[in-house]
Amino acid sequence: MTDPIETPDPTQPQVRELAEIPAVEVITRAAVMLMSAAAEKIGLSSEDPDDSPHRDLDEARRLITALAGLVTSSAEYLGLHAGPLRDGLKSLQLAFREASAAPDEPGHGPGEKYTGPVW
């Protein structure tokens, strides 16, 4: 007797064993989550970032710094993903500088201790 073939339930999320996910995918997903959260905290998801109810530059600074540390320390393992992640990080750093009422000196902005000055 043969076992019936189970078809996946489309309403249930597909679960992958963590051990099966390549490191580059885990790092990239973490970076994308940090980028998205930082963009929200800068207010970039709103039509007018200055009026965003989610704007919190202190939180954005922390997220961007964490992202910079992750991207910088893992760049050698990211292959073709490294360039776009660096570009996204730099865009967030510049958006943060633009959103700040009193921008940090070059080299002292969020994550710049890992990336160097951004302008």
Quick synopsis:
The protein has 119 residues and is mostly helical. It has helices at residues 23-42, 57-78, 82-99, 112-115. The protein is flat.
Topology:
Layout: H1 23-42, H2 57-78, H3 82-99, H4 112-115
Helix pairs in contact: 1-2, 1-3, 2-3
Highlighted features:
DUF1844, 119 residues, mainly alpha, 4 helices
Explain this structure to me?
With 119 residues, the chain is an all-alpha fold. Helices cover 54% and strands 0% of the residues. The chain has helices spanning 23-42, 57-78, 82-99, 112-115. Pfam families: DUF1844.
Principal-axes shape call = flat
**Separation of the first and last Cα atoms:** 69 Å
Query: So how many helices?
Result: 4
- Beta-strand segment tally: 0
**Beta content:** under 5%
Query: What Rg, in angstroms, do the CA atoms define?
Result: 19 Å
The major sheet is characterized as: none
Q: Compute the average pLDDT.
A: 91
Unreliable parts: none
Give the structural class.
mainly alpha
Helix share, percent: 40-55%
List SSEs in N-to-C order: HHHH
Region (Disordered): 99-119
Protein name: Recombinase RecA
